Amino acid sequence: MDPKLIEKRKLELDNFVNESFAVNTDFASRLGLENPFEILMNFESLKDFMFTTVHNFMKHQKITSEDRVWMITRLGYLLGEYFKEKYAGYWTVNEAPDSPQYGHYVIHAKSPSGNAHYPINVFGAATELVEQEDERDLIQLVTEIEAVIQ
What we know:
Elements: H1 3-11, H2 13-30, H3 38-41, H4 43-59, H5 68-86, E1 90-93, E2 105-110, E3 117-120, H6 122-130, H7 138-149
Antiparallel strand pairs: 1-2, 2-3
Helix pairs in contact: 2-5, 4-5, 5-6
């Protein structure tokens, strides 16, 4: 990846993170939450929204090519918020040249044992979920990522 692009992403990181708040609350509002901001203030509300509302919404959702980027963006930011909150994580640009996520925005999540931080490519995970044809399982996707963090 071009080092200039990585530097540009690092400079835009604050804007990227700030955008996530608006995107997450808009997504929650579109899926019917009365108080969409709650998902940013209360981890239990975020979990319930993800594992009930979003999981059920995504399971059989027909995603057109026009909706693909929109959906990946929303899911990526939502997954980022979940892993950031649950694992004392933070958004960053992955600068490890040997990493498959080199140059990408990732969540660095702290393992429960406290011994390591793991870069999670939440937009890659969102893409994987969106590209599944049917029977998408958001809960299984999160469980698989969490197994690596443990």
